[in-house]
Amino acid sequence: MAKNFIQPGNVIDYTAGANLSSGVPLIVGTLLAIPIADIANGDTGAVQIEGVWELPKLSTAVVPVGAAVNWDSGAGEVIIAAGGAGDLNSFGIAIEAAGNGATTVKVKLTPGSGVAGA
Question: A Pfam family for this UniProt protein (predicted)?
């Protein structure tokens, strides 16, 4: 193996700037990251940046399968409309449809595709 290989990259270390709860997404640059376990403020812990996750969704959003999805950082949920400042657009792809009234959606995280909201 090449001597400069570090790790596969689906899980990365993250130093928390606030207390983080396991399973609750956060934005790290242009990545949506999900802590694997609770991380205390100032501690470093593992966050997952790949894979398929069931995430909270704006209940009125209609998400078709295959749609690019956005993260509303203030509400802590998936939206379809473009996010504003502090949000993350196009961070993943819905792998199943989730209609009006559904409060979760399954999303394939697509690292490197996220764009900060304006």
Answer: Phage_cement_2
